[in-house]
Write a structure and sequence with these properties.
Elements: E1 11-15, H1 29-33, E2 38-45, E3 50-54, E4 63-66, E5 75-81, E6 91-92, E7 97-100, E8 105-115, E9 129-134, E10 141-143, E11 150-152, E12 157-164, E13 167-172, E14 178-181, E15 194-197, E16 202-206, E17 218-225, E18 228-236, E19 251-256, E20 258-259, E21 263-266, E22 269-273, E23 283-287, E24 294-298, E25 303-308, E26 323-332, E27 335-340, E28 353-359, E29 365-368, E30 372-377
Parallel strand pairs: 1-3
Antiparallel strand pairs: 2-5, 3-4, 4-8, 5-7, 6-13, 7-13, 8-12, 9-10, 9-13, 11-12, 14-15, 14-22, 15-16, 16-17, 17-18, 18-19, 20-21, 21-22, 23-24, 23-30, 24-25, 25-26, 26-27, 27-28, 28-29, 29-30
Length: 378
């Protein structure tokens, strides 16, 4: 995959409520089972943008902000309430909001402002607040990620960006998943340790110890329970990492982990989470279908890291345990520009090239030059 790339004022609408409160407008039990939304207010935005806000009732302050160019013409936006999303393990801290038209797509991300129940969220727990999205058409639930949510404890609201409409809910979601570095996440220079943890409890760890120009990466799995990672089993043995550094497993030890919005805290050290709310490309990605065998991390400071092994077509790393590549990138207006410093991977980026970058709904996938699809790890 040596990619040839790879680089008028808005209107403000104050909405009159159709009902005075969520309780007064609550649907019948049978309607809740059918997940029928109760519409509380509406307003129209245009190609010039606009915002729609509920000004009364228990959902007072719920706001949708649409930037100019997000839609081609007038769109009537409705705001309502609906039965809770009910994601296992998540602790809701807001009402469940329904936004219509259901499935409405936007050319640019729109901002969603959700009031949350401030008394149920301690200062420490604020870092775990995320926004869940449920498709009422398919029933699929997506965790938008705590790193994409801003919590304002003074006004009691959370803010996030969405690219389509459905049902949304602010919730505290325990998380240890994503991309992390052992030092400054904005200044990776080929010397930091890279850790990627996936929601299926598999992990990738790359550590440049002892000056080895091509250190082996560790790939494996673990069990997450009671705030600890345990029962480590590796499919590829690397240097350092979590296992016993032997070619057999499992490793019987365990390690306590404290996840926060910007770090994974282990006893004695922390891995910094790769995150940047203003940069949708920042974070960890894997080549679709390749799993742990092909990793790509865009750091928020303009650095990138890529790794693959010979199980990936075209990798041809020349190393039995894989090879890495790193360099700098710039992402502006859907164009990704790459300058690879250590182009070790045939399946990597060519130096000084550009590519078109297209994201799917809620930035779940990234397609480069219409050909190479990477799936976000979050």
């Amino acid at each position: 995959m040596k990619v040839a790339l790879l680089r008028s004022p808005a209107r403000s609408l104050v909405v009159s409520l159709l009902c005075v409160s969520v309780v007064a407008c609550a649907p019948e039990e049978e309607e809740e089972i059918k997940r029928t939304p109760v519409i509380l207010g509406s307003g129209t935005v245009s190609a010039a943008g606009g915002d729609v806000t509920l000004t009364e009732g228990e959902l007072k302050g719920t706001t949708v902000i649409v930037p100019a160019g997000a839609v081609d013409g007038d769109v009537e936006i409705t705001i309502g309430t609906i039965v809770g999303i009910g994601m296992k393990g998540a602790e809701p801290v807001s009402h469940t909001i329904y936004l219509g038209p259901e499935g409405q797509q936007f050319k640019k991300p729109v901002t969603l402002v959700l009031p949350y129940q401030t008394g149920s969220v301690s200062q420490a727990a604020q870092s775990g607040v995320s926004v869940l999205k449920r498709s009422e058409a398919t029933g699929k639930v997506v965790d938008l990620g705590a790193d994409k949510v801003a919590v304002d404890a003074v006004t009691g609201v959370v803010r996030t960006e969405v690219t389509s409409f459905s049902s949304f809910e602010a919730a505290i979601v325990p998380r240890i998943y994503g991309a992390f570095t052992l030092t400054d996440p904005d200044m990776w220079n080929g010397g930091d340790e890279i850790l990627i943890i996936k929601p299926d409890n598999t992990y990738f760890n790359w550590s440049p110890e002892n000056g080895d120009p091509e250190p082996p990466a560790e790939l494996g799995s673990f069990t997450w329970a009671g705030g600890k990672m345990t029962d480590f089993r590796h499919t590829q043995n690397g240097r350092g990492g979590f296992d016993n550094d032997q070619n057999t497993g499992p490793y019987g030890g365990s390690v306590a982990v404290t996840p926060t919005i910007d770090a994974l805290k282990f006893p004695g050290f922390s891995f910094n989470r790769v995150m940047d709310m203003s940069n949708p490309i920042a974070g960890a990605w894997e080549l679709e279908g390749a799993g742990l065998n092909h990793q790509l991390v865009f750091l928020s400071g303009g650095k990138y890291f890529m790794w693959c092994n010979d199980q990936v077509d075209g990798c041809d790393s020349g190393a039995s345990e894989g090879a890495h590549e790193f360099g700098t990138y710039n992402y502006v207006d859907d164009i990704l520009s790459i300058d690879s410093v250590s182009p070790d991977i045939d399946a990597g980026f060519s130096p000084g090239v550009t590519a078109t970058a297209v994201f799917s709904d809620e930035y779940a996938t990234l397609t480069l030059d219409g050909e190479y699809v990477f799936r976000r790890i979050r």
